[in-house]
Amino acid sequence: MIIAVDGPAASGKGTIARGLARHFGLPHLDTGLLYRAVAATVRRLELDPTVEADAVAACDFDDRLLDDPGLRDDDTGRLASIVSAHPLVRSALLQRQKRFANQPGGAVLDGRDIGTVIAPNADAKLFVKATPAIRARRRHAELTGRGLETSYEQVLADIRTRDARDSGRDTAPLTQAADAASLDTSNLTVDAAIARAVSLVEERIKGRAVL
Ligand code: CDP
Question: Ligand 1 pocket, 77 CB below 6 A?
């Protein structure tokens, strides 16, 4: 079974994808980490993230980088949103994501284009959202909890910029697949959001079984 979880920054998609993976006993890939690894490599090599060839040169990163907690920083997220807009960066990362999705037994993937580009054949697709104010509050709490100095206003501004860039790009923009179920986590606790996601996936699977 393939489960696709898409949504904007700090919507709760990662937490939901991990919860689904645990519940259904499936491997999970946070595809944002791949773009974050490209971003961190661009920075380390002092390349220009806005130049497509520079960003492509950074796609050949060492997989051990994916375990680096530094990838979760907001700066890296911002840079990831710039490098991920290049079509050649997206195609460089495409096959490994498709392979992960189509492995025997299935998988859960979360990102921006899983239901639309990486796994259009997914058995269940969720589009996770929450208001920008709530997403900013969550991200701000997460960053300050990790000891990083930042203001709520700054985080909200970053979230708005990232939404505009991720939704406005020409290649694989952030958009809800026509057959994805929406899950608004604005007023849900983590446990409630995961429980809702599990029941949406179960409904989808049952729906497919009778088709
Ligand atoms: O958790 P958060 O949304 O802050 O970040 P992320 O999911 O790790 O994604 C970081 C950036 O990578 C996003 O702003 C997107 O520009 C890009 N991304 C993408 O283009 N496609 C994906 N499948 C996943 C991430």
Answer: yes
Which residue, judged by its Cα, is nearest atom 17 of ligand 1?
81
Q: Locate tokens 């994805």: which residue?
A: 180
- CB-based contacts of 143: which residues, under 8 Å, 6+ apart? 74, 150, 155
What is the DSSP-derived secondary structure letter of residue 11? Answer: S
Which of 59, 82, 95, 112 to probe ligand 1 with, by most ligand atoms within 8 A of CB?
112
Q: What is the pTM of this model?
A: 0.93
Encode pLDDT of 176-199 as tens digits. Answer: 999 999 999 999 999 999 999 999
Place of tokens 């495409």: 94
Please check whether residue 3 is in contact with residue 126, taking contact to mean a CB–CB distance below 8 angstroms. Answer: yes
Tell me if 86 CB under 6 Å of ligand 1.
no
SS (H, E, C) 174-209: CCCCCCCEEEECCCCCHHHHHHHHHHHHHHHHHHHH
**Rg for the chain (alpha carbons), in Å?**
17
CA neighbours closer than 13 Å in the CB half-sphere of residue 149: 0
